[in-house]
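Following up on my earlier thread - several people asked me to post the actual chain instead of describing it. Fair enough. Here it is, all 391 residues.
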Amino acid sequence: MTPSARVQAAIEILYQVIASTRDDGPPADTIVQRYFKTRRYAGSKDRRAVRELAYRAIRRSGELPADGRSAMLGVADDDAEIAALFDGSVHGPAVRGEERGAAASLVPGWIEPELSQHLSREEWPALLERAPLDLRVNVARADRDTLAASFEGATPTQLSPWGLRLPPDTRIDDHPAFAEGLVEVQDEGSQLIALACRAAAGMKILDLCAGAGGKSLALAVAAPEAEIIASDTNRARLAQLPPRAARAGAAIGARLLDGGREAEQLADIDGQCDVVLVDAPCSGSGTWRRNPEGRWRLTPGRLDRLVALQERLLELAAPLVKPGGALVYATCSILRREGAEQARNFLGRHSSWIGQDVPFDGGRADGPGRLLTPAHDATDGFFIARFVGPC
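Reply from S.P.:
Thanks for posting it. Predicted structure:
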């Protein structure tokens, strides 16, 4: 592919990403993969260059661009070499007329007042930087320092005692350690959520919103003699857990719940859980560096619905905790309504519960919890709070 053809390919991908964002369709990574499946003529260097161009445009535009061409014209506004490739060549983009490129911004305007008080403008660029690949070592079966030597460029994470950090875009799906269940892909911040549960032998721990089970796996290998129950209403995601657990050698009980009937279906463990983890559905704003088009998908209405769902899940979780037990609340979010405000509101509704600091050094105190951010902690953005119930 010529340099101009690469720009045109990125424009075509951006058109699809923008349309998918509006229609709540597949993510950008999936769209890029599908695009090249039907274009076998593109070599690996072409695919890499086109992908980087498309993501450069996505990261540059906090607001949703009008279309793929305006998104790439915005990049051209910043880069004379890209601007020169709008040359009207056979496979390249048409010559630029009076068109305006998409405006540059990091955060959508309506989201700015929603951000945590700790997130200064100086920290915003880190929200869109390329993220490293973090692994969680299966400490029940392997030693972190020993395993690090088998991965090129691996370094131990600073906050999680289970983590290894690899360069961005490292592939590990064909690595023997992955096949043998010795490591799982998991951001360091996500590992700290499991650490906040303080799992120990003999505990009964419920992962209420388990999804594909990443945190359930971390809990199971951190405390092999604990009883871990993973529940979710999403059948497809929860179905990914059994093979992952088998690969890791972890014993985890899975419960598929019906939306709206969760309390009824969990009644048999009411008041029996030492820990209930609520890793709640959220905006995903803490993962923009991995999914930068997520800024385009979030709307005020969607945020309102997510905040209401988080509150409902906390109310569902509280009665499941045994006297003196703990409820751990987490979101991969940097928005105050999903973090500190949600935690304060829970304590306001439950005056006999108290906030308890989490057992790690990272993050900054944010209301009753702690906020992790890419700039401050080199992790994805997370809010984590731990509440202890009355005895």
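The CA atoms of residues 36 and 47 lie 7 Å apart. That should answer part of your original question.
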